[in-house]
Amino acid sequence: MPDGATIQRMFAEVAPGYDRANRALSLGIDVWWRRVTTGIVGVKSGERGLDVCSGTGDLCFALQRAGAEMVGADFCAPMLSFTHDKAQRLGARRPRFVTADAMQLPFADASFDFATVAFGIRNVQEPVVALREMARVVRPGGRVVVLEFAQPRVPLFGALYRFYFGRVLPWLGGKISGAKNGAYRYLHDSVMAFPERDAFLGLMREAGLARPRTRLLTGGVAAIYRGEVEAG
């Protein structure tokens, strides 16, 4: 895995075309994935939420629209700069965004009702440390929810997915986004190497999260994981 500084530079360079590439490469399905994730978070009006590795803020904005008071955090400031236009469309009621490392969050213990991360946990050098930090800043009884890519296991669909993801997506992603830094080859490699399903549930338990569970989406292309923060 590249070091944190390399990943930070990679995302800074891809930021201008990030949203455009995401919509095209997923055929827009990523919008639905975030909608389902918002439902699994189960936002209650007025709750405080933290979205880690927030990027250009898509999940953060979805949770804000659902009634939460959101803070988005990302260690790549150029990615966060693309939240400004989206925030204008929400008027006065908009998330607050801060530059912060997922492994060292600048928030007090138990200061949020929930924390989320979408397609970012696999980019963190030590995922368990980030999960532990998310659990730390969430109150007892709160929840931590993760949306991340997975690998489909149905044989024919899995073979088609691996061909698209390994051969087509890195080339097409570069063309659409304008990135010339191998970001979409890194996307493929990071998903293939990252622990998923039961293995990721194990990471959540290691981070101290209770009752971790998962829901697979789109034939196993993505997965939503949810765990809860226990008292003491």
Overview of this structure, please?
The model has no long low-confidence stretch (mean pLDDT 91). Helix 7 links the parallel strand 4 and strand 5 (138-149). The protein is globular and about 45 Å long. It is an alpha/beta fold and 232 residues long. The longest helix has 23 residues, at 155-177. It has a single domain (4-14, 31-151, 195-228), classed as Vaccinia Virus protein VP39 (Rossmann fold). The chain has 10 helices and 7 strands. It has a 7-stranded mixed sheet with strand order 3-2-1-4-5-7-6, with helices on both faces.
Could you outline the blueprint of secondary structure elements for this entry?
Layout: H1 4-14, H2 18-25, H3 29-41, E1 48-52, H4 58-65, E2 69-74, H5 77-80, H6 84-89, E3 96-99, E4 112-118, H7 127-137, E5 138-149, H8 155-177, H9 183-193, H10 198-206, E6 210-217, E7 222-228
Parallel strand pairs: 1-2, 1-4, 2-3, 4-5
Antiparallel strand pairs: 5-7, 6-7
Concise structural overview:
The chain has helices at residues 4-14, 18-25, 29-41, 58-65, 77-80, 84-89, 127-137, 155-177, 183-193, 198-206; strands spanning 48-52, 69-74, 96-99, 112-118, 138-149, 210-217, 222-228.
Q: What general form does the structure show?
A: globular
Q: CATH superfamily membership, which one?
A: Vaccinia Virus protein VP39
Classified by CATH, the class is Alpha Beta
What is the domain tally?
A: 1
Do you know the CATH topology? Rossmann fold
Q: Kindly estimate the percentage of residues that lie in beta strands according to DSSP.
A: 15-25%
**Helical element count?**
10
| Residue share in helix | 40-55%
Main sheet properties: 7 strands, mixed
Task: Report Rg.
Answer: 17 Å
What is the count of β-strands? 7
Helix-strand pattern, N to C?
HHHEHEHHEEHEHHHEE
Q: What's the architecture, going by CATH?
A: 3-Layer(aba) Sandwich
Regions with little confidence, pLDDT below 50 for 5+ residues: none
Distance between the termini: 34 Å
Helix/strand/pairing category: alpha/beta
What is the mean predicted local confidence, pLDDT?
91
Please list the strands of the largest sheet in the order they lie side by side.
3-2-1-4-5-7-6
